[in-house]
Amino acid sequence: MPDPIPSYIHLLRAKDLIDRRYAQPLDVAAMAREAHASSAHFARSFKRAFGETPHQYLLRRRIERAQELLRSTQLGVTDVSLEVGFRSLGTFSRTFREITGESPSAYARRWRAAGAPPIPGCFAQMYTRPLGRAVLEKPAGGGLRNVTSTATDQEAPCD
Amino acid sequence: MRLTHTTIWVLDQDEALDFYTSKLGFEVNADATIDDFRWLTVSPPDQPDHELILLEPGPPMMDEPTAAQVRALIAKGVLGPGAFETDDCARSYAELSARGVPFISEPAQRSYGIEATLRDNSGNWFSMTQRSG
Question: Whole-number mean pLDDT of chain A?
Answer without folding.
Answer: 83
